[in-house]
Design a protein that fits this description.
Layout: H1 13-29, H2 33-40, H3 44-50, H4 59-68, H5 75-96, H6 118-133, H7 140-150, H8 154-165, H9 170-179, H10 186-192, H11 203-212, H12 217-236, H13 245-260, H14 263-285
């Protein structure tokens, strides 16, 4: 049997996983595409393309491919694998086909239409997938998790933060965070979800806000991961050749590190140093 071409390096991880499993099943069965075509009644071209990683095969082709190889794992293995690839491809298509909305001049008597957020687009795509394939729709938390993975702009991240607030008041969020040992002021919350900001929130404030909004611990990591990715992206886009650029970047880096430190820890460190210095001075004075 002729060796198959390698799966392209730029394919989606979920699509790569599906194609790899199909290829492994074929190798384990020791069948050629000609024999597999006889077993499944699909053409060799269709079967070869299904395992190429370049295009998502239909569920029927995927199921027939696995059955034609005599794979014993059944639909409980192949369906989630195919569904994950299908969702990933659909989300990529939705992101690619959604351009920046051009500015729209509001007309008399008509309200200006709100631009859809990333979370809105994800939910619409999940609902379309449910209608098309009869799959179970994602929960709101899972939809936001997917939207976080698709965030490429700080504005999108802040929009998700604002959506996370829901019907909670600023006092509710502040009090819930305080009850769990975190401090955040209403001013911080208002700044974090405001429409005029272009900065990723500091790690401590973001965490306090998430706790105050009752985000489950399993999802908190996704928020921090997205925030870190956007911070790195911002740093990489910084102009490296402007006058005094090195010192400006160094200053910004030092400010970022300082903002990440807990004020309480900093005060505690200073107090410890002062007490130690006083003790050493006393020992020297009395000859110890």
């Amino acid at each position: 049997m002729a060796a198959e071409k390698p799966i392209p390096a730029d394919v989606l991880p979920e699509l790569r996983a599906l194609a790899t499993q199909l290829r492994d099943a074929k190798v384990a069965a020791g069948v050629s595409y000609k024999k597999l075509s006889e077993n499944t009644h699909y053409s060799t071209a269709t079967l070869s393309q299904a395992a190429s990683g370049k295009k998502l095969p239909t569920w029927d082709v995927t199921k027939a491919y696995a059955n034609g190889c005599g794979d014993p794992r059944g639909e409980e293995f192949w369906m989630p694998l195919w569904q994950a690839a299908s969702d990933a491809v659909s989300l990529q298509n939705a992101a690619d086909l959604t351009p920046e909305d051009p500015p729209v001049q509001p007309q008399a008597g008509r309200a200006r239409r709100r631009r859809k957020s990333v979370a809105d687009l994800v939910r619409e795509e999940m609902e379309r997938q449910q209608r098309q394939h009869g799959t179970q729709s994602q929960s709101s938390a899972d939809a936001i998790r997917t939207a976080l993975a698709l965030c490429v702009k700080v504005e999108e991240f802040r929009s998700l933060l604002k959506e996370l607030k829901g019907g909670r008041s600023l006092d509710d969020i502040k009090d819930r965070a305080r009850d769990k040992g975190y401090t955040i002021r209403k001013f911080n919350i208002a700044t974090m979800i405001g429409d005029d900001g272009n900065e990723v929130p500091d790690t401590e404030l973001l965490h306090a806000y998430l706790v105050g909004c009752d985000v489950e611990p399993a999802y908190v990591h996704d928020w921090h991961h997205a925030a870190t990715r956007l911070k790195i992206s911002q740093a990489m886009r910084a102009e490296p050749n402007d006058e005094g650029g090195f010192f400006q970047r160094l200053y910004r880096w030092m400010r970022r590190i300082r903002s990440e430190l807990r004020l309480e820890a900093l005060i505690g460190l200073v107090c410890t140093v002062v007490v130690a210095a006083v003790q050493v001075a006393s020992m020297l004075q009395f000859g110890f």
